Structures are given as C-alpha cells and as structure tokens.
Amino acid sequence: MRARILGRALRVAVARAGAPSGLRFTRRQLYYELCRTLRPVPRRLRRPGFTVSAPVAYPDFRTALDRYGPIPDLLTSEPVGPRRAGEHTPEPDLFDYGLPRLLICESDDVARMLRANGVPMESACPVYGAGELPLDPRIPDMLSMVDRSAVFVLHDATPDGLTFPARLRELTRIPDDVRVVPLGLRPRQASALHLTHLSGPGAAVAVAAELDPSERLWFDRGRTAEVEAVRPASLLRTVHRLVREVRPRDTSIHLRRVRASGFLTWPTV
C-alpha cells in the first residue's frame, strides 16, 4: 500500500518539479517536491514563518525512484573538479573582456541544475560549484576589470553553509575589489518559504552572532535546510533577479516585510 502511495505521489512530483516548461532538476529537488506533494502547506496559512519535517525518508524515496523508471528531465550526478574556462568557444579574445558577475554554489548539483536551465546565458553569469574551485586564474582578472563586480554565493542553511561565503577566498582567488555577496539560504528564508527541513542533533554555529534568536533556536533543534528544497522554478526566478541585482517594485507592505526576511523569499510559488 505504501509503495503504491509513494508511486502515485512521485508521478505528481515529477510533473511539478519540471513545471512550467520542462525544467531540469536534481534528484534531491525531486525528493523535496515529493515531500511537498505528500505534506502540502496551505496557501492561506497565516502563521509566522516555519519549516516542515520530511514526511518520507530519503532512502524510501530512492526505492520509489528506482521502481519509477527513467525520468528525462532528471539530472544525474557527474564527477566534479576544477574547470578550465573558455573551452566552449574558440574566441581568442574572450578574456580581454570584463565580467560583472559570477555565481558560486556550495552544492555542485545546484550549480549543474542552474547551468542546465540556462542561467549563465540568460543572466550573463557563469555558474560554478564548490567542487569546481579554484577558479581558472583568468576569471578573477576578468572580474577586476568591472567596477562593483560581484561573486554571488548560494549556500545551504547549515552551520557549514553559513560560513561558506566567508571561506570562499580561501578556496579560490577573489580580488579584494570584488564583492562577495551571500544570497542565502538562511534559516529565516527557509522559514518564510515553509521549506522541508532535515533533522539531526543540534549543532554549534560559528556565525551565531549574526543569527537572530529564532535562527539560533532553529539550529539548536537540529534543523537544517538545503537550497534544493526550494521549488526549481522559484529558485531559477530568484537567482535570475538577484545576480542581476534587480528588485521588483514594492507593491504592498506585506511584500516589503517578506523581502526583509531574506532574498530567497521573493518568489513564494
């Protein structure tokens, strides 16, 4: 009975994960879509921000996925390592141009998903995963050619994730005049989006001084959240807006409050 329920729910989750236009998605993004399918959050719920426990264990999801069969839009994991820039083009003067922005993801799978869905081309923003660092030494030089260039950082709401932006200059060369801009995920952003959290023992957070009391309590309860818990379409919209540093117009006090709780709360569907 449980296997049939998971199978039917997984079929719905596959359709939702790729919506609205055949998006590519990772295995963990599909897992979290299955969690939302099995335990949806009512749209009109007006409680303060909160996260939701997972209704199905990841091993059970993997078992259901193995039974499901091939999924065309599902990305498969690939070996990662430092990438040499410019191999996609024969242009000899590629590195003579400035680069205004770059996105580095803590998760290599998230980086692969963003590239597969066109973020580098549509937002003129190369995307790298942590496993692909250090950067080709010519990339930082390109960033230095542009005033107020930025390296945007996408990380999980975990103790290690929150320190990832601060550790980035240890992992790769980033010129001093280039901004490092964390985009999230933070606990308050995960709560505003009602994401599915993972549970474990409480963990000390090295950046506790930068957390508000509710975020510290969230970590003390052993909760963490991954960027892949954000709906794929919402994640793409958010990344496109943030790396181009475009803010939508404030149309209501409610929207201003939502945005104040964190970048990743902008799209709520």
Q: What is the level 1 CATH name of the largest domain?
A: Alpha Beta
The CATH architecture of the largest domain comes to 3-Layer(aba) Sandwich
Task: Figure out the total of helices.
Answer: 11
Give the overall average pLDDT: 86
Q: What is the CA-CA span between the terminal residues?
A: 31 Å
- In the sheet with the most strands, the strands line up as 3-2-4-5
Secondary-structure element pattern, one letter each:
HHEHEHHEHEHEHEHEHH
What's the count of strands?
7
CATH topology of the largest domain: Dna Topoisomerase Vi A Subunit, Chain: A, domain 2
Cα-atom Rg, whole angstroms? Answer: 19 Å
Q: Give a short account of the largest sheet.
A: 4 strands, parallel
Shape: globular
Q: Stretches where pLDDT falls below 50 for ≥5 residues? A: 251-263, 265-269
**Beta-strand proportion:** 5-15%
Structural class: alpha/beta
Roughly what percent helix? Answer: 25-40%
Q: In total, how many domains does the architecture comprise?
A: 2
